[in-house]
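cron nightly-structures :: item 1 of 1
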Amino acid sequence: MAKIAVFDSGLGSLSIIKEIQKIMKADIVYFADQKNYPYGTKSQAQMASIIKKTICMLEEKFTPDVIVVASNTPSLMLNLQKGKIIDVKPPLKLAKQKTKSKKIGILATKSSVKSKGLVNYVKENNFPDSYKIFKINGSNLVDLVETGKFLNNENYCKKIIKKSLEKYIITKKVDTITLSSTHLLFLKKLFEKEFPKVQFIDPGNLVAKKIFSKIKNKQSKRNSLKIFTSGNEIQFKNKLNKIGIKNKINYLST
């Protein structure tokens, strides 16, 4: 039986869980750490404290085979991927393969964009001098998801998307953008509608494959999903209901 714990500061984990369930059967615990939303504005010290407490809590309460930190922000700011922990980082190797203009955007939270971790991660990917990498603050786009605006106000979302990305795509000629907050995957169809010639790269499948490689011999008979939040259970349940998720929501604190 495969036991996987997945967490971030809200809805972002669901985009990763969806990809996990496509390629394997597992018992998944999803923890939405809404008390600490948004991760994307936290300092490195704050983030380190939050992530340490959360991982310890999930380990003690659920003893999972794998813990997925389903947020690019702590994954870039902290050294997380060791043992049973899997992180999520911008899929730059795939972006390098797909770009034609050699101009790539990393769309991420404010903290990620400003982090030394992102600078180092880009260096590790050894881009030739002919490539240009643009770090784009997408914290306002993350808010469109976590507040639920993406569910009922498409025109407003399209305006914010256009304002956030237009100068990079039109002026800087960026043709490939990594969706480097798991929240942003909920906006992928809107991104593609607004900028149909740009490739928006989703890391979810790559993360799911990493998880599968760790637990492929422990698969469960069926998929199960238990959902917990450190925020308001009723508000979170209402939000999940709007995207078709009817599971029971339980309160859990670090």
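cron nightly-structures :: done
The chain is about 45% helix and 20% strand.
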